[in-house]
Structures
1.
Amino acid sequence: MRQDTKMPTEAKEFAAASGSPALPGIDGAGISVRALQHSYGELRTIERLDLNAAPGTVLGLVGPSGCGKSTLLELIAGLLEPQAGAIEVGGATEISERLSRCAYMPQRDLLLPWFTAIDNAALALRNGGARRAPARREAARLFDRFGLGGFERSRPSELSGGMRQRVAFLRTLLSGKPVLALDEPFASLDAITRAEMQGWLAGALEADPRTVVLVTHDVEEALYLSDRVVVLSPRPARAVAELRAPAPRAAQRDEAVTDPEFVAVREEAMRALRRGSDGDDVRLAMDGDR
Amino acid sequence: MRRWALPLLLLAALIGAWQLAATSGAISGALHLEDFLVPAPSDIASSLWKNRSLLADNAWVTLKEVLLGFGCALLAGIAFAVALHLSETLRRAAYPLLVASQTIPIIVIAPILVVWFGYGIGPKLGIVALICFFPITVNTLDGLRSVDPDALKMMRTLGASRRQSFLRVEAPTALPYAFSGAKIAVAVAVIGAVFGEWAGSDSGLGHLMLQDNAQLETARLFAAVVVLSAMAIALFALLTLAERRIVTWR
Amino acid sequence: MNPRRPSVFAALILLVLSLGLTACGEKSEDSGGETTQPFHLTLDFYPNPDHAGIYMAQRLGYFRDAGLDVSIDTPSDPAAPIKQVAAGRTDLAISYEPEVALANERGLDVVAVGAIVDKPLTSMIWLEKSGVKGIADLRGKTIATAGIPYQDAYLKTILARANLSPSDVKAVNVGFGLLPAILGGRAQAMLGGFRNVEGVDLRLRGKRPVVTPVDQLGVPTYNELVLVANRRQLEEDPEAVRLFIAALERGTSAAVKSPNATVKALLKANPDLDPKLTAAEVKATLPLLESSDPAQPYGFMDPARWREFIGWMRDNAVLDSLPAPSQLLSNDYLPGEIPE
């Protein structure tokens, strides 16, 4: 699963700045969704959806609550089988193969309370057959990098909300999967922590790029973290708009989100959201390169 | 130590009141507290001391029945709960029967077991196990079913096999519940042992109680009851201690 | 004011009133106009043929004729009645001669006032097919007992006569499970069953039991069932007890004369009884209800025999002391013994 490729320059700088050896990058796998359709019982949740994500990029999905974003993530990640349509992740279409390529990070951190932070983080390694000591060593290397140094032995209950999310993200990262499916990772955090975490995640992805599908209800968050953002309609979900983020994962977050171009794109996204809610039957072509 | 002070104080007060009622002629007369009906705490205490070796020997017999029966129920109960958890069909078929099994009075089952299995430790073990089985199974099963489905999803994406998910998520989730069930079971296990002995035995605290009842040895009867209670409390406390050591995350 | 309060208050008042009325009701006399005195009798066990005289007297109105409104209680276990009468909860209890001696030693202020069955019913029973021909054959066998300590002494005495000791047999305490023990083959013999109850039951099942009352095996004779009274209550109201025993004698005579009516009376008192078994038990019991010594009044308890039995109890460490029979029994309340 791990592949050695060339490192993006920003990652090298980040690695140099934090003083720890850079992890070998993972190329990420491309995602392609065609004519996806899914229902929950009698209820149609997703209606003829098409999506694309190039390897190593972040695709943001925004939409109103209950529009089926989480289901969409589970479908991509290989936790569910779609009723109609095709999903391809890194060339694999079969559900168990998709599952083996995707790491799913649910909304709640779901850290297991009976494991320490480091044992939680190393779970994927242990599941893969690694013995405890080597797995812990591997995980420990990332703890410092991600500002969790010294908290390896802590129980989840002893950590703050933001720290728990970071451990959860570490856990997802350590699974070594080329695709990360993040379901509202910062929804449970307060505004200040959330902003910090967005900056942190941006840095983490620069150091260790993967293909990421990020679901969030926060338009600004999506636009800051993603390369491209798709706006979804309320259920049944369709793509209402697709936008290109002006400054994905820019180093100075606060400056970036107040930049006029960013604000303009954000306004457009909000309009698209409202359009979708109003039921306008507008479908945009896939490569909305503006 | 501090947490024991309050209950001990209350207990001392109650015993004191009881002693007063027993020795004060006016109160015991009004309450009809003859000493052959309800002995004074001082009589019970002296009987405890006087008969300490007799009580200890019989207590050991009963304790063995309790520990073995409880042990069997623990293993069987947890295994059964896991089986019911893993198989939906089995759960639908067996769960109602499990509940119904508890409605059969032990008083009815005990003599039957004795007739089938003789007068050794077998039937007593069986009765204790029967009494303990239900709370352990039901609680453990509830614990297993309380697992967060999202946690299992998360484990799947982290490459966990069914076995790994079970060992790392479902089993630890169920552990506190299993302890709850075990604590309930151990408190009533002692009663089961006594019923088993009443159905046929030649030793044990239950057996001693029957003899004392027939011989109007009421003080020793009550002393046996005190020893039985102490046994149940000690076992309960041991389990609580074990729980605190093992379930460190609650 | 909370609108809910009045109804709760009213409910409480109603509850208290009804409890009060019930309590008063228990103390009130018979509304029929006759003045009868309430009289409580506690049996030794559930109603069975041993109580034939009692239920016939009840059924034929003999107690009422004597001015007694008799209510009959079944105890929770056979050791309870003597405690109840000692505590003044009941007027008369049916218990056993050994129990009276034990109770007296424990300081219970009770006295036996009449024998319902003045001979032992407790028997050693084995089945023909067990191959046991005599006590000596019990070596190594399993004997089911009821777990009553003085009955363990019976066993010791019985075995000693055949030069056996308790360690030569396997005695198992089965509580009330005497019949299942022997029917299930778990025990080859049982001690503690009554000849007119378990003995008859086994015979009716075609098991061919060999039934030997314990006084034929070396245990001194004793009164199996006696009426026991509270000494203080007796002093306060001796008449009631006298009248009761007199009525009981009439009832016993009537029972002996009409077994069928007796069976009916018993079945009515305890519908759980099996009619066929009860009929057979009644037939076996009625002769046993008659006095061993016709020269003595009904219910006579022989002090000399009691002295011998008490001595045996002491020798076998069932009793620590040697009370005088006069401490344990009184024949003063028997019919025909009315003091001048």
2.
Amino acid sequence: MRQIRGLTVLSLLLISVMVAPAGWAGAAKSKLEIFSWWTAGGEAEGLAGMFTVYKKLYPNVDIVNATVAGGAGTNAKAVLATRLTGGDPPDSFQVHAGLEVQKYDPAKYLEPLDGLFTSAGWDKVFPSGLLTLLRYQGHYWSVPVNIHRANVMWYSKKVFTDNKLTPPKTFDEWFKVADALKAKGIVPFVLGDKEGWEAGHAFEAVLIGTLGADGYRGLWTGKTQWTDAKVTQALNTFKRMLTYTNSDHAALTWDGAGQYLIDNKGAMQIMGDWQNGWFQSKNYSGYGWASPPGNAGVFDALSDSFSLPKGAKDRENAMNWLKVAGSKAGQEAFNPKKGSICARTDCTQSLFNAYLQSAAQDWKSNALVPSVIHGAAAIESWATKYKDALALFVTSGDVAKTQADLQQACKGAGVCK
Amino acid sequence: MTQNATPTRVAPALAARAVRRGGRGPTADRLISLLLIAPSLIVIAVFVYGFIGFTAFASLTKWNALAPDFSWVGLQNYAQLFSTIRFQIDLRNTVTFTVLFLVVCLSLGFTLAVLLDQRIRGEGLFRSVFLFPLALSFIVTGVVWRWMLNPGSVQLGSTGVNLLLEKVGLGFLKSGWYTDPRIGIKAVVIAATWQMSGYVMAMYVAGLRGIPEELREAALVDGASSFQVYRHIIVPLLNPITLGAMIILGHISLKIFDLVVAMTGPGPGFSSDVPAFFMFETTFRGNNFAQGAGIALILLVMVAVLIVPYLVYSLRTETQR
Amino acid sequence: MTVRPLPWLRPVLYALLVGLAILYLLPVYVLVVTSMKSFAEVNLYRMWDWPARFSLESFVHAWAGSETQGFRGLSHNFWNSVRLGVPATLLSALLGSLNGYVLSKWKFRAADTLFALLLFGMFIPYQSILIPLVQVLRRIGLYGSILGLIFTHVVYGIPITTLIFRNYYATVPGELVEAAKIDGAGILGIYRYVVFPISLPAFAVVMIWQFTSIWNDFLFGVIITPRPAVQPIMVALNNLAGSYIVEWNVQMAGALLAALPTVLVYVVLGRYFMRGLLAGSLKG
């Protein structure tokens, strides 16, 4: 009896303790809730940098940094799906520029930003290749903050100089270099594909190298058929490349695999330029970069951007956020830390390190192609099928079946007939 | 059990209350009993069965975008699922994992319980060591075992468990663990067993303590060896516990998700992929809500096949008691 | 217990136990040692190495966060989990106790079927009901708050808590209840004066089990409370990992910090857990 009374009192006390703060939410600062999966490292720092810029302009706004990590964004996407369909959208959320926006049903859940683009003059300051990427169903749905390059071949300078080799420019050269290195017990092709997308990422570069920029672009628009002989050739090339990787690739994520280069036990890794940020955080500077074989002059792009959901609670704050995201100050605060280059073409280059400066140059002059693994080239369901097919390919090596699956995926997305 | 309040001590208090209340009759009690469980029943009806119904319905539609599209497609999603290689591998993985996990975890838990039952010193300490992994989240377990079972590489040398095996001269036991597509999900069994064997052990310790001394003594007096005592008397007596543990472990293994996500991901060639993970990815990454719902239903059916016979059996044996 | 049916050599027994204990503690060693290294030193291939330089910085980072590196620490979410776990556990146990009491001592014709229907709720895969769950919670105004999380955990805890209590009360002799009825007590009175006082072992098992599973939950936490200020600790722990970059030493330190309460519960209260099991609450 005393126990019951005690327990009841205790429970009521506890319930009142937690209800109380919720009720007292009031104190008038207006809010801005930004949703992303940038939870650590350079990305979080970059985001914090943009917050600082925003706060200087709008000091009375309370920024809520709502992040969800894990699963390369899958956890965050789960939360977003429940929030958007549940009628509780964040004020702005991170989305890859490109066809990935399709998954959020823009017509229903997002606001078009065409007016903002014109009034902010962004159509003059973003390269046209990027603007093409951003357009979906005739509208702009998000503001790009950065550009990442996916097709970079990072290599260990020491390994190359020690073995008197130069970074290969063609696939034939690549295999000669790989053979030489393999004989010395060094991993020629470093890969870490635990998260399932890295194989598909590397294969993009092989596709570009085999089909060229136009051929690659055509794969996503239906102009190039997946049953094309060049795709078969690309698959065979990739299959051969996979015989030169580290045996533990399935246990490592891309950054874990990067350790091979740092330890001078591995030679080349095809990965996006966020690898640059990771090398820096590990105090490693002995790396060089080059285009993967056949990729010279082609920039495989992806971009992070911010959108405006319909029904955002603090719409004005959100619009201001988008303006900051697209501004010179905002992008200069964000990109050096994140390890990417500005989407704008007028950022101050001295803020960036050597690699990023060279990337910015390439961005202006190279042919631009969209990355599929990172949401630019295809709708997400197609991108997922592509990713899964390649992940399976790494173990199965079945060229015919994989090619058939890729063609099927294209059909399923309604692009191929 | 000495904890039972003796009826005589309690009766006066109860009687006094009954008098004060004016003696409520049995029908009022019947009503109160229903009122007491009504909230639970209502809530479960909505949050379990209502949702199952919704999921079943969704699996028969064409819902594959954020905005629901409930146009009817019948069993098409299921047909598509069963012809997807990834799902076929998932089902195979689930069966492998469940069988292996049950066998290993039950055996290990039983062994630990028997060892702890031997009246040893420091029993509390040993029990804590074996029991504490139960306190951890599957995410924490997954992160640690991802490192432990990382095989290392030909180029950089072994690491984790492989390194230890080398150091103690058992190098021939090295393997690729979860990076080897032939092993895949079996490596996850190790982590899951480490986490859950303490629970099995605790159940068996409780069960063993409940076996009367006389039974064992009588058997030993009759000339049975201790092994025979275990095999023919003790193990059969523990059957209810074995069954109960199988049910709990079985349903955990069918739904396994966090551990796989944190430890191996889908693995090479999807060798450690599981339906729950596929469901999560296809629903929230591929936006294929209908397909995700289909996987959920299949999972539910698998669980039902495991649980329902047990429930029927256990409730029937109870009424016999 | 005086008879030892396995008269092995005691040393062999102890050796076996100690060996197994060491094996079980290996992962803990890795956790602890890694969390005491600095980021530059953390290396997959040297995981067994003792730290060259002991540093508690990863614990500090994990707890307090790092403004410069832009991640939040676990401290705030730790208290969220406490405010979630304690009430949810208590409510959940109370509810299970009442349910178990009614379903075992006040049986009516449909009691067993209803119990089976209740129990089945334990087995649904939670990923599959997230969308309808959020929509219902929004409609009743519980979405996005700790109260909503408490509600969810209590709801989905009903099956297991009812199971444990019902099995436990099944071992309580019916005569006790009958005697009290004869003395004129009603259903609530019997609960309060007869059944509840002897329920301690079952409460111990249920509360330990529920607290652990609620504390360790990730899925409901991340979906029902998307705002970081109210998220429970496992969600925050998962966020210590970046989308591309993971600081292993901070993550391991964070994992240790997050696991501390439940580990303490099992270590300190483990014997009550065992006693509860002994008292028959989880027998089949």
